[in-house]
Specification:
With 715 residues, this protein is an alpha/beta fold. The protein is built from 22 helices and 20 strands. It has a nine-stranded mixed sheet with strand order 1-2-3-7-4-8-9-10-11, sandwiched between helices. Strand 8, helix 8 and strand 9 form a beta-alpha-beta unit. The radius of gyration is 29 Å and the shape is elongated.
Length: 715
């Protein structure tokens, strides 16, 4: 068997001479075992099956119908616009003046290095190093190198990840290119945030439709603007590359910017199966992903580069970009290129190695650009060396005080500021548009084909003059939930049905209350694993509840959306974070799908003949109340909604994809209160003025009652 060194060299050469690329190894990469298991609770098992079905569906639909050559321009335009939206770049920010500044220049072995910064938008600074041959006699092709997560720090000083990858700048300059290496937001000289959901609990990023991938893509687009402004650069011969995080940003940029004529994203993309099912998402920060509004699998991103020159680079034992997913992605993209007559423009460079910048990948990258930007072949010098110290590459002596880099997540995707309607007709138009946007942009993960509820009675008990029935139903494929119905034993039909939407805290109170008469069954439902701890029986709560049911002729239903009570998920913080991130990758949030669960529970009750004419009152505390509120927006026939201490802005939850781009909770309250009566208990009644004013305009003030809570009531 050939030594690895020679095997690499032979495979590198073969990659560039086979139009369809070469698959260098049969050994598949594998994700780390601890990423795979969410847990052994029933809810965990249900969730993994749910992820499997959802990913299978999205994968099967991805590029199932290939565009023809005639269809390609419109197909590409439409999908590119969707990608821009999912990056938070629709509409595109203004191309404000770059205001480039060169803070220093030095020479290293016939390569001139410039230390540069520019502003991709006002006060959003991009630090960079530009490498060029010492002598430039004609316009040269240019390479934008986008850095991965290669932090370079000394003490409390960040020198930027451009220092980690500077060997590429030298290699390209020696081969007759201009190479601009730009820092990223998180690991630049001015350190921003890539880990909003991963590390800092900033789930409102999903509400805003924000991802740092959008900032990195925009900075790259503006870097190309800068390259085209340079007199040494041929503006028609621009390439892009980067590895790991830089590989991902290379994908976004090449997909949205036609000025990129050749791209080599390295270890920056794989498919949803790897990320969601195999658990590779746990090895990536938020900058690696779009907000998946349109529920794409990643071959769709790659296809948007066609018909331009694309080399997909990876190693065969990369545990965060596994080989099997890269192969699957490449095969789908190759078929797109073939369908539009450009199969010779795409290839796969796959070499032995882990998640590392191995020499053959470097060689393949250099050869690809030589072929497609210069139309020539040259001897390859492997650039894997770092001869320069970070101090000589640092751009700023002092960081600019007006920078927005550290807080760009607050403003990059603007929050909607809805105006009050001027008339009833204006309100109707606004409300219809909001409902449409909510369905298309926030709740696109709701099933398009609604499954049968498949209602079954799990058990029915009687005690203390009360009847408890536990009904199981299917919310959607793989999601089987339980609804509890509590009523007096007397054969009187209820005048009102209270539908209580429970969160985990509400479930625990429910368990404490129902343990009094129904100890055995309730404990069995509540003990989802051996470590469960149950609240003690609450005799007082049981007595108050039964008196209310008897005196007022009402029944109570208790809705447990997915991830709550018997279907609770792994409670460890790390796993809960990664569950939510998986959901975002398939175009959902747990809260968004819980609204669907509440809707399905209402549909279940409506299917019971005895309850067909009963008034339904939705009730919930805190965020659970907002889930009920949104269910009422879409489900007809809700008589009343009772909200207790709900958040007054989505930033506090619940979290729905993109919702803050269109409206906030006061507008959602107005949407529901126009149809149903709402009783709201809150310590901040002024926060809901928008809904109050809309109802006054429509002369429906009686539909909203606000009770101001004291500080002691809130506590």
């Amino acid at each position: 068997m050939l030594p690895h060194k020679w095997r690499w060299i032979l495979l590198t050469a073969a990659t560039l001479f086979l139009p369809a690329g070469i698959l260098a190894s049969e050994a598949y990469g594998a994700p780390r075992p601890e990423w795979i298991q969410l847990g052994e609770r029933p809810g965990d098992r249900m969730l993994m099956e749910y992820f499997r079905l959802e990913v299978e569906d999205l994968s099967n639909r991805c590029l199932a119908e290939l565009p023809t050559i005639a269809e390609w321009p419109e197909w590409q335009r439409r999908h590119r616009q969707q990608l821009l939206e999912m990056l938070g770049l629709d509409p595109l920010p203004e191309r404000s003046p770059l205001q480039p500044v060169i803070t220093g220049t030095f020479e290293w072995e016939n390569v001139l290095v410039e230390k540069i910064y520019f502003q991709s938008m006002p006060k959003l600074y991009v630090t960079a190093n530009l490498y060029r041959p010492k002598e430039v006699k004609e316009k040269l092709p240019a390479i934008l190198y986008v850095c991965g997560h290669g932090a370079v720090r000394k003490g409390n000083i960040s020198y930027g990840n451009k220092c980690h990858y500077h060997y590429y700048g030298i290699a390209f300059a020696r081969r007759g290119y201009i190479c601009l290496i730009i820092d990223t937001v998180q690991l630049g000289e001015i350190e921003g945030i890539h880990h909003g959901t991963y590390r800092y609990g900033m789930w409102w990023w999903n509400n805003r439709g924000y991802t740092p991938a959008g900032v990195e893509a925009w900075n790259s687009v503006r870097a190309i603007d800068y390259l085209q402004s340079r007199p040494e650069v041929d503006p028609e011969r621009i390439g892009i590359t980067g590895r790991s995080g830089g590989g991902a940003y290379s994908w976004w940029t090449a997909a949205i910017d036609e000025r990129v004529k050749a791209a080599v994203p390295v270890a920056g993309i794989t498919d949803l199966h790897n990320h969601v099912i195999d658990g590779c998402v746990e090895g990536h920060c938020d900058c690696m992903y779009v907000v998946n509004t349109y529920r794409w699998d990643y071959p769709l991103v790659a296809a948007l580069v066609a018909p331009r020159a694309l080399l997909i680079g990876n190693t065969d034992n990369d545990d965060i970009f596994p080989e099997d997913g890269v192969r699957r992605l490449y095969e789908k993209v190759r078929k797109v290129y073939a369908a539009i007559g450009a199969e010779d423009q795409v290839a796969l460079a796959l070499f032995p190695g882990k998640h590392e910048d191995v020499p053959p990948l470097q060689e393949a990258t250099l050869r690809w650009f030589d072929k497609h930007l210069k139309g020539q072949e040259q001897p390859v010098e492997v650039p894997l060396l770092r001869p320069l110290q970070p101090e000589v590459l640092k751009v700023f002596e002092l960081l600019p005080e007006d920078q927005l880099n550290t807080t760009i997540h607050e403003s990059f995707v603007p929050k909607a500021m809805p105006q009050l309607p001027s008339s009833a007709q204006a309100w109707e138009e606004m409300a219809n548009q909001w409902r449409r946007l909510l369905e298309e942009k926030c709740f696109a993960g709701w099933p398009k084909e609604v499954a049968s509820l498949d209602i079954t009675l799990a058990y029915e008990l009687e005690a203390d003059g009360m009847r408890l029935a536990a009904w199981d139903f299917t919310s959607q494929k793989a999601v089987r939930l339980r609804l509890y119905l509590l009523a007096p034993v007397a054969d009187l039909l209820p005048g009102t049905m209270f539908v209580n939407v429970l969160d985990q805290s509400g479930w625990e109170k429910f368990v404490a209350t129902l343990r009094v008469p129904f100890e055995e069954h309730i404990i069995k439902d509540a003990l989802v694993d051996k470590d469960s701890s149950l609240p003690p029986p609450d005799q007082k709560a049981w007595q108050e509840l039964t008196k209310k049911l008897r005196d007022e002729n009402i029944w109570h239903a208790y809705v447990l959306p997915r991830g709550t009570g018997p279907t609770a998920w792994n409670p460890t913080e790390r796993k809960r974070v990664q569950i939510e991130r998986r959901l975002m990758l398939i175009g959902q949030t747990s809260d968004g799908m819980r609204v669907w669960d509440v809707r399905r529970a209402i549909q279940l009750l409506r299917q019971m003949p005895a309850l067909a004419q009963t008034k339904i009152v939705l009730s919930g505390q805190g965020i659970a109340g907002i889930l009920a509120l949104y269910a009422a927006i879409f489900e007809p026939g809700i008589h009343q909604i009772h909200l207790s201490q709900p958040p007054h802005e989505h930033r506090q939850g619940p979290y729905f994809l993109n919702v803050e781009r269109f409206l906030d909770l006061p507008q959602a309250l107005a949407l529901a209160a126009v149809k149903s009566q709402v009783q709201l208990a809150t310590d901040q009644p002024e926060a809901w003025d928008y809904a109050v004013k809309v109802l006054a305009l429509l002369q429906k003030q009686e539909n909203l009652t606000i009770e101001k809570l004291s500080s002691s009531q809130v506590q």
